[in-house]
């Protein structure tokens, strides 16, 4: 008889925690999962899934307009926000049920309560204390709002999915992927939308050309960009909010949404008392097997803030479960992780940016194409697509592939397989394109741009 009630107790029912728990149970472990909110975590409830649904909704206005160039005569458009919210809620509830069913089928005990760590082998939830050989922290992240006067009047992405009504004037603050996604969504659904960012370059950390091109395209779509600008305080008068800007200007809006970053959701759950060391941003410090400074306590996903993506958290959960209960000795591979930004237009990337490659001192060739997609030739849309390859000159190895344009995520996903397999530019060149598609441009890039060269 084991001295512990469970082999694994997971705190957090998001993508990483659910996967780690399910796989551990399938390998014979006795597992309990503690979640105080809805199963599925950020991704299912206030992240990837509802955001992509909202993005689809926001595309229709442009699609209706594009249709005119193809002979369609659509009638007057009318968007109903409550319908979108209700249908989104129905889909999220269905997914919550799917997660519950998967855990039940795997034999995982689900405890609907807030979980706290009492000591390295004990967790408390719902007034009950439970012991486990291993404890997993998979509590995800939480939006961060700067402490400025009037910050209480702003919302974050968490609240954006449950607004009672669609505002007429929206200010989105931030320059990362959540900011550009929601600015695109609000703009596409009708509100007058302004994006404020204190920096000069959208999507910091991505290839620089992506942020520059996206800024041009978002402006074409109707988003007002205020780069190099910051909000110092927010006032409220009547039914509107007054933004007081660092430049001295003011602007009246109906809604302010902050998308200025997320922090690990690790505060107040007893980690420090159990001997778990945290980074300054609250991330659990772990080794390459996700073990914290308390050897029986592990952490994955946004709680360790390595790469804050759902597929990464899921993969980390798989590695951990197989190592703990499957006799494996795996390490997580963080190279060439593809990602997409569901702005309008979409952005997607895999591998190294041009700047990263040059910082490593690599002599590289850079291939870039900017073109008008075929659909736009009849629709009249001014939208242009950007595609880019970063290639190591000595070996021909494709180091990075980047895109801004329709369905960028769908296209880059396929290229991610190629890069993972070590594809070279010569192999790209030898691959026949599918014509006519935008994706074929990646296999017809022939001349590096003039500015490319040795670092």
What does this structure look like?
- With 455 residues, the chain is of the alpha/beta class.
- The chain folds into three domains: 6-143 and 263-325, FAD/NAD(P)-binding domain (3-Layer(bba) Sandwich); 151-259, FAD/NAD(P)-binding domain (3-Layer(bba) Sandwich); 345-443, 2-Layer Sandwich (Enolase-like, domain 1), CATH 3.30.390.30.
- Helix content is 31%, strand content 24%.
- It has helices spanning 15-26, 41-46, 48-67, 81-106, 157-160, 177-189, 208-221, 310-325, 354-359, 374-379, 408-420, 425-430; strands spanning 6-11, 31-34, 109-111, 115-119, 122-125, 128-137, 141-143, 169-173, 192-197, 224-227, 231-237, 240-245, 250-253, 255-258, 262-264, 297-299, 339-341, 347-351, 364-371, 385-392, 398-404.
- The strands form five sheets. Strands 1, 2, 3, 4, 5, 6 and 16 form a seven-stranded mixed β-sheet that branches.
- A hairpin with a 2-residue loop joins β4 (115-119) and β5 (122-125).
- α1 packs parallel to α4, α1 packs parallel to α8 and α3 crosses α6 (177-189).
- The protein is globular, with a radius of gyration of 24 Å.
- The mean pLDDT is 96.
């Amino acid at each position: 008889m084991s001295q512990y009630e469970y082999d694994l107790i997971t705190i957090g029912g998001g993508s990483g925690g659910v996967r780690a728990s399910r796989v551990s149970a399938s390998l014979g472990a006795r597992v309990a999962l503690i979640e105080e909110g809805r199963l599925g975590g950020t991704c299912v409830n206030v992240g990837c899934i509802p955001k992509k649904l909202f993005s689809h909704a926001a595309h229709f206005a442009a699609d209706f307009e594009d249709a005119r160039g193809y002979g369609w005569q659509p009638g007057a458009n009318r968007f109903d926000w409550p319908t979108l919210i209700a249908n989104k809620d129905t889909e999220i509830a269905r997914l919550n049920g799917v997660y519950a069913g998967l855990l039940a089928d795997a034999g995982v005990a689900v405890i609907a309560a807030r979980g706290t760590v009492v000591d390295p082998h004990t967790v408390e939830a719902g007034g009950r204390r439970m012991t486990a050989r291993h404890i997993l922290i998979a509590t995800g992240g939480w939006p961060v709002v700067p402490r400025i006067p009037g910050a209480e009047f702003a919302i974050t992405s968490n609240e954006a999915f449950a607004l009672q009504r669609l505002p007429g004037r929206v200010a989105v603050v931030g320059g990362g992927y959540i900011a550009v996604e929601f600015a695109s969504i609000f703009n596409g659904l009708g509100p007058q939308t302004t994006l404020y960012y204190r920096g000069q370059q959208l999507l910091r950390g991505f290839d620089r050309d992506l942020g520059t091109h996206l800024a041009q395209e978002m402006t074409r779509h109707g988003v007002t960009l205020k780069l190099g600008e910051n909000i110092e305080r927010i006032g409220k008068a009547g039914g509107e909010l007054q933004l007081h800007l660092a430049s001295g200007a003011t602007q009246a809006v109906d809604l302010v949404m902050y998308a200025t970053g997320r922090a690990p959701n690790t505060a107040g759950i007893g980690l420090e008392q159990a001997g778990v060391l945290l980074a300054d941003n609250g991330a659990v410090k772990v080794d390459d097997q996700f073990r914290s400074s308390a050897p029986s306590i592990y952490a994955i996903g946004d709680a360790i803030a390595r790469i804050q993506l759902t597929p990464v958290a899921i993969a980390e959960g798989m590695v951990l479960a197989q190592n703990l209960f499957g006799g494996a000795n795996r390490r997580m591979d963080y190279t060439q992780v593809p990602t997409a930004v569901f702005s309008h237009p979409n952005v997607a990337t895999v591998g190294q940016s041009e700047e990263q490659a040059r910082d490593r001192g690599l002599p590289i060739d850079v291939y870039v194409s900017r073109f008008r997609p075929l659909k736009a030739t009849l629709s009249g849309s001014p939208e242009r697509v950007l595609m880019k390859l970063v290639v190591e000159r000595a070996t021909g190895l494709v180091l990075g592939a980047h895109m801004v344009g329709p369905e960028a995520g769908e296209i880059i996903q396929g290229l991610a397989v190629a890069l993972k397999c070590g594809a070279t530019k010569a192999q790209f060149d030898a691959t026949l394109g599918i014509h006519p598609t935008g994706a074929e441009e990646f296999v017809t890039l022939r001349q590096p741009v003039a500015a490319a060269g040795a670092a």
